Amino acid sequence: MRLSIVIVSYNVKYYLEQCLSSIFASSMASDLEVFVVDNASSDGSIDYLRNRFPQVHYLINSKNLGFAVANNIAIRRSESQYVLLLNPDTVLGEETLTRVCDFMDAHPRAGAAGVKMIDAQGKFLPESKRGFPTMWVSFCKLSGLNRMFPKSRIFGRYHLRYLDPDTAHCVDVLSGAFMLLRRDALKQTGLLDERFFMYGEDIDLSYRVAKSGMEVWYLPYRIMHYKGESAHSSDARYVRLFFRAMVQFYRKHFHGNLLGLLLVRMGMLVGMLSLFLRRKLVHLFLRSTQEMRTPVVYRYPEQSYDQILSEIERHRANRTLSNFILHTETGIAVGSDGDVRIE
Questions:
Q1: pLDDT tens digits for 80-105?
Q2: How many CB atoms lie within 10 A of CB 260?
Q3: Whose CA is closest to 27, among 223, 326, 220, 305?
Q4: 103 in Cβ contact with 218 (< 8 Å)
Q5: CB 135, CB 256: distance < 8 Å
Q6: Which helix (H) or strand (E) is 116 found in, with range?
Q7: Which CATH number is associated with domain 3-232?
Q8: 6 - beta bridge partners?
């Protein structure tokens, strides 16, 4: 088996259905296995999906154990050459998995690889490639300086916006929404640190892969991630969880660095203030634009997933569109605003 895909699920039935559909439409569908680890969903996800995707290994937890613990449960059961950590609210093109695995085959020093993620409006998600959250980088991220100077190599190192998203790069940190790992890299670094419940575990794992001497690569192969980090950046809970994860990361890898922790705390205070102002502006903007959005329905399998994602990205500048991907066999359409329509 070439690839094991691990998906942690929590009350995302229709997103997960679409994700699995895109996986099994892949050109390497015959050479992979899929584990879905359900963290005590209450939406009937597993009963709904079992008949549709009987080839999936379903692992059901009696309570929400968090992202890291759930992933590790499945990784320990897998046996393939590569392991992919994948979010359930993603859609893959038919050639994406083959291209990433072929890249890893051709680059034996590569320990991990991520891809170019776009949101459901076609906009590039900057969390696709990131720099290590040193005390200065974390301060710039939390305080909003990286937003003010996104292309700066001094202030914008968290999201590395000065690197071309359509070119492959060796980077520091990948997103846990799509992180493909070489089995040998996991043997060297160990699995995900289960002390991270939500956020930070992908940063920690990327850091350990790089520290082991293996390379971490960003590849310009497109996937769609409905609810990217940017979707939560105006959420106070997200800022608090991210701050907590950064403190945890520092205490683990840079214990005793009081200056670093102070900078992170200062960054959070500034960040909460800028968040309050941004939320006011976003609220006003959404009120004026949300009602004007025009629904656009892409139909699978009439169009391939690759074609659909290409079209969505091509129209990314038009923010008045509300994109839906309709699977005509099931009649389920999942939309860019989180809407689900059943035809």
A1: 999 999 999 999 999 999 999 999 99
A2: 21
A3: 305
A4: no
A5: no
A6: strand 110-118
A7: 3.90.550.10
A8: 35, 85
Q: Measure CA 163 to chain center.
A: 19
- Specify the DSSP class assigned to residue 146: H
Longest Cα–Cα distance of the chain, Å, equals 58
State whether the Cα torsion 61-66-71-73 is positive or negative. negative
Q: Domain coordinates of the chain in residue numbers?
A: 3-232, 288-342
Query: The whole model's pTM is what?
Result: 0.86
Task: Show the tokens assigned to 53.
Answer: 């995707």
What's the pLDDT tens digit per position in 283-335?
555 545 555 678 899 999 999 999 999 999 999 988 888 899 999 999 999 98
What is the secondary structure of 32-90 as a DSSP string? EEEEEEEES-SS-HHHHHHTT-TTSEEEEESS---HHHHHHHHHHH--SSEEEEE-TTE
Residue by residue, DSSP assigns 164-228 as -TTS-EE-SB--TTEEEEEHHHHHHH-S--TT-SSSSHHHHHHHHHHHTT-EEEEEEEEEEETT-
Residues 6+ apart with CB under 8 A from 206: 112, 172, 173, 174, 179, 216
Indicate the pairing of strand 178-182 with strand 215-225.
unpaired
Q: CB–CB of 127/340 below 8 Å?
A: no
Alpha carbons within 13 angstroms on the beta-carbon side of residue 227 total 16
- 3-state class of 135 per DSSP? helix
Tokens of 182: 């070489």
Looking at the predicted structure, is the pLDDT value of residue 120 above 80? yes
Residue found under tokens 């005793």: 256
